[in-house]
Amino acid sequence: MSNDPTKEPRPAGRDDQGQGGRPAGPVAAGDPPPPAVAKASSGAVPPATPPAGDAPAESDQGSDVTSPPDAAQDVEADLDKLLADTQRERDEYLDLAKRAKADFENFRKRMASEVQAAAARGKGELIRDVAPVLDDLERALQAAGIDPEGDSPDGLTHGVLLVFRSLREALTRSGIEEIDPKGEKFDPTLHEALSTQPAEGTEPGTVLEVMQKGYRLGDQLIRPARVVVGE
After folding, report:
1. Residue spans of beta strands (DSSP E) within the chain
2. Edge-to-edge order in the sheet of strand 191-197
3. Cα(first)–Cα(last) distance of the chain, in Å?
4. For residue range 175-207, what is the model confidence (pLDDT) as tens digits?
5. Which of 37-66 are b and which e, b meaning 16 or more Cβ less than 10 Å from the residue's Cβ?
6. 228 within a domain of the structure (yes/no)
7. What are 78-94's pLDDT values in tens digits?
8. Is the pTM for the entire model greater than 0.85?
9. H or E segment to which residue 157 belongs
10. Is 7 a domain residue?
11. How far is Cα 65 from Cα 75, in angstroms, rounded to an integer?
12. Enclosing domain of residue 184
């Protein structure tokens, strides 16, 4: 120690340390940092302790969440139910369409049958009104000695023959068939026997004479032929 009185004494503990107790000289590389510096440089914040009442709430919240496998099963069940409902509605609509088609087909057939029946009734009424006119024309020609199937040089007679044949052809075009059974076997479904008479050289039951021709439309008999039958 110097005995120079001009130098003031240095405070104890300030010789080897700087501010905060840090040594004034350089710090060696291997020396640990002071506690204050280490705390400031680390930047770590100690975790806060959660309140005692928050832990049960967190566990309760996690228990309400549906796990992924359960959600997938719910979606699959909903899809299966939707598919079953769709198939049921499809079957109902298909059955309804089949019934509607069958009803329409039956209606179409019934209407076609009714139209044909109405047309047949109309033709039957027509021939009932026209047949007496044909009978009168034919009897008039026979009374005049004119063959209804022949011809005549007389203009008036020729005109009457043309009217008679045209009227008969019009009925034929409408599907009306003439019944002229002379020389045929008597048929009670088509013929009406007015009388019977013995006839030599013919079999019994043969139509000898046709008093009035008959008419039919297909299987429908419009008017039977009135005939004389041999015994």
Report:
1. 176-179, 191-197, 207-212, 214-217, 220-223, 225-230
2. 191-197, 225-230, 207-212
3. 190
4. 889 999 998 999 999 999 999 988 888 888 899
5. eeeeeeeeeeeeeeeeeeeeeeeeeeeeee
6. yes
7. 888 899 899 999 999 99
8. no
9. helix 155-173
10. no
11. 16
12. 178-231
Note the pLDDT of residue 23.
47
Give me the residue label for tokens 């069940």.
Answer: 77
Domains contained in the chain, number? 1
CATH, residue 222: 2.30.22.10
DSSP class of residue 23? B
Distances (CA, A) of 42 to 46, 86, 173: 11, 67, 121
Does 27 reside within a domain? no
Pairing of strands 191-197, 225-230: parallel
What are the pLDDT digits (tens) for 102-119?
A: 999 999 999 999 998 888
Cα separation, 116 vs 114, in Å, equals: 5
- Coil/strand/helix, residue 54: helix
